[in-house]
């Protein structure tokens, strides 16, 4: 090996050198040079470590976000720390651990948007870069925290899509306005959820649906049991309705409603539900018989998982600050189209 170096180094020491440099000296400078270069490289590029905190790790949507963030970590070369942060205490503890473990930033879908000011302050103190995903932080003034970098969905627009799809489906089936009603599973304490359901209600009313036939069923928790309970209460109050159109903040909300309706004898021929996410309804679409869960607005888990991770990585590594507010769209999938669309989007083989 030394012989190889010797051969390479020969031209660097031209004949005009008054004193021949000993082999030992050459070797010393070579080794010292390499060591310095190594040190320099090390100082310029510390290992990047990024946290990814989600509020509901059991929901397929968040699992898919993580999957895509993992892909980014592998492809771009950083360490991803995935943390299920289901309440405020867990979020604050996770930030401490990330800071102690040498992370430089984190992405978060917070369990409560009102924790925003506390999370932002803690991130600042710990010198961690911060990017919120899905659910935008709310400040002490009740307004979105526009200075915290965020990537979310165009919630109002996607909700309008849901409403328009429901209005069209109702017409196609020839259901009369007199015996059809809307069941909107609401979760108004979360802004993105409210924008979605209000968007759907707005599109239904724009399509001519009577306002007094639109009923809101508020969920206490944003999961299937929360929606199931809320809709059961509504169905007890409205026994005369023959056909139901269902919307909600996500697939879980609509799935809970569909299960509650089934308990009262409503099936695919008497109720239509359209969800949002497109990731939590795959098992439903794969059932041998169609259920009332007609379709879902598929969101881009890849943008929410991979792209947010990439934004954070470039911010840490190259100082490229991401856009303050990015919004993504959705596309309709149904029992008939989901296989093809999921394949196109790289979600399924
Ligand atoms: C919220 C919902 C998720 C998903 C995401 C984009 O966080 O809880 O189900 O719809 O927005």
Please describe what this structure looks like.
Helices cover 46% and strands 19% of the residues. With 349 residues, the chain is of the alpha/beta class. It is elongated, with a radius of gyration of 28 Å. Helix 7 (191-206) links the parallel strand 6 and strand 7. Helix 6 (155-173) packs parallel to helix 7 (191-206). The chain has helices at residues 2-9, 23-44, 60-76, 88-100, 116-125, 155-173, 191-206, 224-237, 251-263, 282-285, 301-318, 338-344, and strands spanning 49-54, 79-84, 105-108, 129-133, 150-153, 180-186, 214-218, 243-248, 271-277, 293-299, 325-328, 330-334. It folds into three domains: 2-43; 49-148 and 301-328, Rossmann fold (3-Layer(aba) Sandwich), CATH 3.40.50.2300; 155-299, 3-Layer(aba) Sandwich (Rossmann fold), CATH 3.40.50. Strands 2-1-3-4-5-11 form a six-stranded parallel β-sheet, with helices on both faces. It has a six-stranded mixed β-sheet with strand order 7-6-8-9-10-12, with helices on both faces. The structure holds alpha-D-fucopyranose. Alpha-D-fucopyranose (FCA) is lined by residues 59, 61, 109, 134-135, 153, 192, 222, 250, 276-277, 299.
- Element order: H for helix, E for strand: HHEHEHEHEEHEHEHEHEHEHEEH
CATH architecture label name of the largest domain: 3-Layer(aba) Sandwich
Roughly how much helix do the residues carry, as a percent range? 40-55%
Ions, cofactors and other ligands present here are:
alpha-D-fucopyranose
Count of distinct structural domains: 3
N-to-C terminal Cα separation, in Å? 48 Å
Counting helices, strands and paired strands, the structural category is alpha/beta
Mean pLDDT: 91
Radius of gyration: 28 Å
Q: Superfamily at the CATH H level of the largest domain?
A: Response regulator
The level 1 CATH classification of the largest domain is Alpha Beta
Q: Treating each run of at least 4 consecutive H or I residues as one helix, how many helices? A: 12
| β-strand amount | 15-25%
State the low-pLDDT regions, or none: 1-19
The fold-level CATH name of the largest domain is Rossmann fold
Strand order of the largest sheet: 2-1-3-4-5-11
Could you give a short account of the major beta sheet? Answer: 6 strands, parallel
């Amino acid at each position: 090996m030394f012989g190889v170096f010797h051969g390479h180094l020969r031209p660097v020491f031209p004949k005009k050198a008054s004193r021949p440099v000993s082999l030992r000296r050459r070797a010393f400078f070579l080794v010292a040079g390499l060591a310095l270069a190594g040190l320099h490289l090390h100082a310029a590029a510390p290992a990047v470590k990024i946290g990814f905190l989600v509020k509901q790790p059991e929901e397929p949507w968040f699992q898919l976000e993580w999957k895509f963030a993992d892909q980014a970590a592998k492809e771009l070369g950083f360490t991803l720390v995935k943390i299920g942060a289901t309440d405020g205490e867990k979020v604050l503890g996770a930030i401490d651990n990330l800071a102690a473990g040498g992370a430089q930033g984190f992405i978060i879908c917070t369990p409560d948007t009102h924790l925003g000011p506390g999370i932002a302050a803690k991130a600042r103190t710990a010198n961690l870069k911060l990017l919120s995903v899905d659910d935008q932080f709310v400040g002490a003034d009740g307004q979105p925290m526009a200075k915290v970098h965020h990537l979310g969905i165009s919630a109002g627009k996607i909700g309008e899509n849901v409403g328009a799809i429901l209005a069209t489906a109702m017409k196609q089936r020839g259901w009369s306005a007199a015996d059809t009603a809307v069941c909107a599973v609401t979760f108004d304490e979360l802004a993105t959820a409210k924008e979605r359901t209000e968007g759907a209600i707005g599109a239904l009313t724009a399509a001519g649906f009577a306002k007094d036939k639109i009923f809101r069923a508020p969920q206490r928790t944003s999961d299937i049991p929360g929606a199931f309970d809320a809709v059961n209460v509504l169905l007890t109050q409205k026994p005369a309705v023959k056909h139901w159109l269902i919307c909600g903040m996500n697939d879980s909300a609509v799935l809970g409603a569909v299960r509650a309706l089934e308990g009262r004898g409503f099936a695919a021929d008497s109720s239509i539900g359209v969800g949002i996410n497109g990731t939590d309804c795959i098992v439903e679409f794969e059932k041998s018989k169609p259920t009332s869960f007609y379709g879902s607005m598929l969101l881009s888990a890849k943008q929410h998982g991979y792209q947010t991770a990439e934004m954070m990585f470039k911010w840490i590594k190259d100082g490229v600050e991401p856009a303050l507010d990015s919004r993504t769209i959705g596309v309709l999938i149904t029992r008939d189209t989901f296989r093809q669309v999921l394949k196109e989007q790289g979600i399924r083989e």
